């Protein structure tokens, strides 16, 4: 059978074909959703993190107990396979983003393989490693371990990856750096000063990098999802992705791929440099770019109550 020239084909449109991306912290949660959606758009995605099929970090033991899990769900290998199955090319690279030499080796590999980098998604986050089951408490009652977990293994990881990406992108005179964050128009994330400070620092870091990278044609943004149905959220509510609708308390949740579609839309936007330095909400981007969540919904923006309290913990985008 010969197709007529004007007959449609079933080949899906791949707006990010040829794009080379790194997604940090992509074993599960937000990183996994972003990586898969970039793959669906045709990108080559370097999927990084510490969890592989054969090895998992011991620093999650406390969170596993709180979530009622025996083992960590997800790995960079599984995410990379999903990226490829979605239509892109997934490449799993074990990387501890707190270790300068490992991060440097990652960027050297990407440059060696492709001579360029188009997109860096800063998503690596160690904030959950110190979580003790208490979110809503005065700052003097929270352990100082939160500082190391959220600032050193969170904010610093973003800065470190950005330092390696910036020279490569500046030489190209193009590129995009996206930080995953949480933001609700400057409202205070009451109940956890450490958490609020880390999110504010990530937003300011994205802004500062934007100011210095703009003259080189490189954009830097922060993107804020709502309350996502990550593996840990689903486990904490004793359900899974197939049955979450049976839990009324999860009605306002969104899948991690909703965030992924936002990042893919930004990466495909030729005018993205005009938005550099901004903090953008996924729900607003969904309306602007015309995408939906995987179930067809346009999920409204997550907004904190006047007394935010523990609601902020629900909104953590990464895990």
In terms of topology, how is this protein built?
Blueprint: E1 20-23, H1 29-40, E2 44-49, H2 61-67, H3 76-86, E3 89-94, H4 100-114, E4 119-122, H5 145-172, E5 175-180, H6 193-213, E6 218-224, H7 231-236, H8 256-268, E7 279-281, H9 282-289, H10 311-314
Tell me what the structure shows.
Residues about 1-10 and about 305-315 have low confidence and may be disordered. Helix 1 (about 30-40) crosses helix 8 and helix 4 (about 100-115) runs parallel beside helix 5. The relative contact order is 0.15. A 7-stranded parallel beta sheet has the order 3-2-1-4-5-6-7, sandwiched between helices. It is globular. Helix content is about 40%, strand content about 10%. The chain is of the alpha/beta class. It has helices spanning about 30-40, 60-65, 75-85, 100-115, 145-170, 195-215, 230-235, 255-270, 280-290, 310-315; strands spanning about 20-25, 45-50, 90-95, 120, 175-180, 220-225, 280. The protein has a single domain (about 20-315), classed as NAD(P)-binding Rossmann-like Domain (Rossmann fold, 3-Layer(aba) Sandwich).
């Amino acid at each position: 059978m010969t197709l007529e020239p004007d007959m449609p084909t079933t080949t899906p449109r791949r707006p990010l074909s040829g794009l080379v991306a790194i997604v940090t912290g992509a074993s599960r949660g937000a990183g996994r959703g972003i990586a898969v959606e970039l793959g669906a758009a045709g990108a080559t995605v370097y999927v990084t993190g510490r969890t592989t099929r054969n090895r998992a970090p011991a620093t999650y033991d406390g969170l596993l107990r709180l979530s009622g899990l025996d083992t960590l769900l997800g790995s960079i290998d599984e995410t990379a396979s999903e990226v490829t199955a979605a239509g892109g090319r997934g490449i799993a690279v074990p990387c501890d983003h707190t270790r300068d030499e490992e991060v440097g080796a990652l960027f050297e590999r990407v440059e060696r393989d492709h001579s360029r980098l188009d997109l860096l998604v800063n998503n690596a986050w160690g904030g959950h490693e110190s979580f003790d089951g208490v979110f809503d408490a005065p700052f003097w009652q929270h352990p100082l371990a939160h500082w190391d977990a959220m600032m050193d293994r969170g904010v610093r990881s973003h800065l470190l990856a950005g330092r390696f990406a910036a020279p490569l992108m500046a030489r190209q005179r193009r590129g995009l750096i996206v930080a995953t964050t949480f933001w609700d128009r400057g409202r205070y994330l009451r109940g956890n000063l450490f958490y609020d400070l880390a999110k504010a620092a990530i937003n300011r870091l994205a802004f500062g990098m934007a100011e210095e990278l703009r003259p080189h044609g490189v954009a830097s943004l922060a993107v804020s999802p709502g309350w996502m149905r990550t593996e840990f959220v689903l486990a904490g509510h004793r359900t899974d992705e197939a049955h979450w609708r049976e839990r009324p308390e999860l009605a306002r949740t969104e899948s991690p791929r909703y965030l992924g579609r936002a990042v893919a839309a930004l990466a495909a936007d030729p005018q993205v440099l005009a938005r550099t330095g901004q903090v953008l909400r996924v729900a607003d981007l969904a309306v602007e770019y015309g995408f939906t969540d995987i179930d067809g919904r346009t999920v409204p923006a997550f907004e904190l109550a006047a007394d935010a309290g523990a609601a902020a913990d629900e909104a953590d985008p990464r895990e």
